Amino acid sequence: AQSVTQLDSHVSVSEGTPVLLRCNYSSSYSPSLFWYVQHPNKGLQLLLKYTSAATLVKGINGFEAEFKKSETSFHLTKPSAHMSDAAEYFCVVFKAAGNKLTFGGGTRVLVKP
Amino acid sequence: DGGITQSPKYLFRKEGQNVTLSCEQNLNHDAMYWYRQDPGQGLRLIYYSQIVNDFQKGDIAEGYSVSREKKESFPLTVTSAQKNPTAFYLCASSIREGSYNEQFFGPGTRLTVL
């Protein structure tokens, strides 16, 4: 069985400071992992995905994530937060049957001026 | 513009009534999905369809029904049997089955049962 745990339900950062969103997964085989972002009352947008190529994955809007198999982690980072980064972020693991995604509980990011 | 449209954006329903949520895509994707999102929770899969005239139950299918008569359309009916239907509903599509295929999401429909 696969599962995803996002370790922080809320993260608050100041504009211009780094952002770290933590995600741990469990999977019986080498997983495909994604980070999605959701702005209020909107659909989800893909930030980046890991599919067993390079362990450091660069995404849109300056985000990147590092796959660490030994730690079963896929943390999302950004060097400098922008006000527009205020949103909810979901760590997601792919489930083989039917292209199904298993979602973490989400991390809501607040960016202070 | 290519994309996924969902309508309506907000929907109110009286208890005991069935209601149908629309999802249309012009991305020529084979697979389509319906998710439910509740406050503070991730998305949970209701139904998915990999091809026209075929669909499978997801993790929380009870009280919901779907059809897939056209490639572009995957409507979701919330029936009166769904005990707690108030939620944000998201439709998604992808090229086909496979781990490398990104799912594209629509803007969502917020359903409130009065």
In a nutshell, what does this entry contain?
Chain A has about 110 residues and is mostly beta strands. Chain A is built from no helices and 12 strands.
Number of alpha- plus pi-helical segments of chain B: 0
Total count of strands of chain A: 12
Radius of gyration of chain B: 13 Å
Any idea what the shape of chain A is? globular
Give the percentage of residues in beta strands of chain A: over 45%
Question: Which assembly state applies to the chains in this document?
Answer: heterodimer
Verbal overview:
- The complex is a heterodimer of chains A (about 110) and B (about 110).
- Chain A is mostly beta strands and about 110 residues long.
- Chain A is built from no helices and twelve strands.
- In chain A, strands 2, 5, 6, 10, 11 and 12 form a six-stranded mixed sheet that branches.
- In chain A, strand 8 (about 65-70) and strand 9 form a beta hairpin.
- Chain A is globular, with a radius of gyration of 13 Å.
- The mean pLDDT of chain A is about 90.
- Chain B is mainly β and about 110 residues long.
- Chain B is built from no helices and eleven strands.
- Chain B has strands at about 5, 10-15, 20-25, 30-35, 45-50, 55, 65, 75-80, 85-95, 105, 110-114.
- In chain B, the strands form two sheets. In chain B, strands 2, 4, 5, 6, 9, 10 and 11 form a seven-stranded mixed sheet that branches.
